[in-house]
Amino acid sequence: MREQQSGGDRGAADGRRRDKRPTMADVAARVGVSRALVSLVFRNEPGASQETRARVFQAAAELGYRPDSAAQMLARSHSKVLGVAATVRNPFHADLVEAIHPVAERLGYDVLLSVTAPTRDEVKAVEALLSHRCEGLILLGPNTEPEYIADLGRRIPVVVVGRRFPGRGVDSVHTAEAKGVRQVIDHLVELGHRSIVHVDGGRQPGSVERRRAYQSAMRRHGLAGEIRVLPGDHTEESGVQAAETLLAEPRLPTAVLAGNDRCALGLLDALRRAKVDIPGQVSVAGYDDSHIAHLSYVDLTTVRQDPDRLAELAVRTVVERLGGADLPAREQVLEPKLVVRGTTGPPPGRAEEAAGAGG
Amino acid sequence: MREQQSGGDRGAADGRRRDKRPTMADVAARVGVSRALVSLVFRNEPGASQETRARVFQAAAELGYRPDSAAQMLARSHSKVLGVAATVRNPFHADLVEAIHPVAERLGYDVLLSVTAPTRDEVKAVEALLSHRCEGLILLGPNTEPEYIADLGRRIPVVVVGRRFPGRGVDSVHTAEAKGVRQVIDHLVELGHRSIVHVDGGRQPGSVERRRAYQSAMRRHGLAGEIRVLPGDHTEESGVQAAETLLAEPRLPTAVLAGNDRCALGLLDALRRAKVDIPGQVSVAGYDDSHIAHLSYVDLTTVRQDPDRLAELAVRTVVERLGGADLPAREQVLEPKLVVRGTTGPPPGRAEEAAGAGG
DNA sequence: ACCTCTACCTAGAGCGCGCTAGTAGATCGC
DNA sequence: GCGATCTACTAGCGCGCTCTAGGTAGAGGT
């Protein structure tokens, strides 16, 4: 490691550095008004003249004043902060987080994000949020003990996003997994596929539902004999492993439904790398429609879970509860939507036929 | 949208729900001691007997008490909170964030994360952090006006990670971009490449340095005539675009150095999709070694920027400043390390030769 | 008996803000 | 000319905690 020094414009030269941050009282003193007036101005409440407002803002800018949210929270009965727990590596969570911000803002709430990672468990993330005075919690595809979450729900409003959470008095918002899966299977069968494998999501959110839906959809199409579920989870690695399993066998299936987009990505790349033509030889479908799937280089057929809609509902639900709504726990289920892109097509030998029919 | 109701175990049935959260005073009252004593116990300070400690914790657990960090912050002179601003979609940032948490925790700091996204600009993210009373700021590859960051640095300790930030009195921690790029070019030239294109990172962190280093490394190898820089930024899309540009030309280069891993990913996929053999026809190298590059399905040759080291230094630097160290601004530069994986190899026509020599 | 020392505990003043209750001064109605 | 009604502002309590400056009780020394 190398170190360099660059122009030392630190320290005492600059007057305000190092002393404590300015407070409302400092601003008030500078303008020559009371603290309360400054408070009014910053909360945008009536009761101050336009001229005074301008002078207050001016002084605040000069001092570099910024309201202290800790003090605000303390003084207000409510903190106006929503906590979001997400997995840092999950791109769909990234989409959701992005969507949550504007909605919360519109409703006057600040968002605090706490991340879960292999090295940092969910409980810790949630505890951090709680001590930062979140009034409500939005848990993205949580993997913790249901009992823990239920317990949380007894203390503060909690909404679980992206997974079912029935019978525990906690609100949830998710898509109709079964319907999404059914749409994909219908799409594939319509294209002429019969040999359709499903790579499972293990104990990840939505997996159980997706697996069951796969099985029943296959049966509905008279393909009970073709049902095959490979174990996996929602990571790229599991897709790669599934691909390796399939490639080691004498005959590839003509289509694979992955547990989610990340898994599909792993599948896709391992297959392409083995010179398998996608979708010529094998069609691949994902689930989530995370921003990765949109990218032209992936161009994945997948099931869209509308993150904007999910985020909107999640935030609204928590805020309603906060508003004192003493309703029983709700489960809000969104319609998923199949998004057909470039990774699915007719199975080998059916290409011309389909081209003729499809128009 | 469908709605369901599930077991309504909400509301008045459960006593504690809806009433305000318990405070230290509640715990104290329950144990029959003073508030101050409870405070001692929770801060793990000497001055309470073992027995009392146990009783306090017991009571706290029964009440579901949790210290209110807003009040703690307010009462303490320092908040013990570090703010991190990251881009939600950047996987390398995810790696860094993950690495920052344990280091901060070890040093007794809590971490607040604020995300930047296309819809939410960096200034807003930083403002949020500041309001939440962060004592120090860690900015991951910031893209804001340098003047703004410099200004910030005058108020509170700020460390910029992943990009140079010279002469503005702000600490920075990054890798020696030039050296990393030189290593890649050396590696490629050694393999026999001459036609090596660089896809630029635009105004993204590190880009200028990488571009310059590419140019000078090429010149050093007597390949001044082969220098070619395509515009781009640090997204997958820009990689795809660069690939399209290259594919539209009569002759492909034999190697491409992308601005970062995301860009490399776009390149890779667009090329493979066009049936270009990687690395048989074209070698591709990235920059960052984000967790995506590790994945077996990507297996990208790239330049490793050690996120653990970067995180460690970043946190330590901020904390040192917080400790009152009144040093001039430091620039800490880490050594990058070339990681050769599967996307680079000898150029077309040199494969056998290299295989013979390489052992 | 008195003093000291240690171990354990308490009172109470803030931290920066929001908010309720109130005041000074201008304008208006009659 | 006096109360009524604004507008523009202020005083001061309390949010839940930390922390300084104590207080008390019992053990031990002289």
From TrEMBL, chains A, B:
Keywords: DNA-binding, Transcription, Transcription regulation. Transmembrane segments: none annotated. It comes from the Bacteria. GO terms for molecular function: DNA-binding transcription factor activity; transcription cis-regulatory region binding. Residues 11-23 have a biased composition (Basic and acidic residues). Residues 22-76 form the HTH lacI-type domain. Residues 1-25, 340-359 are annotated as: Disordered. This is LacI family transcriptional regulator. It comes from Gandjariella thermophila. The lineage of its organism: Bacteria, Bacillati, Actinomycetota, Actinomycetes, Pseudonocardiales.
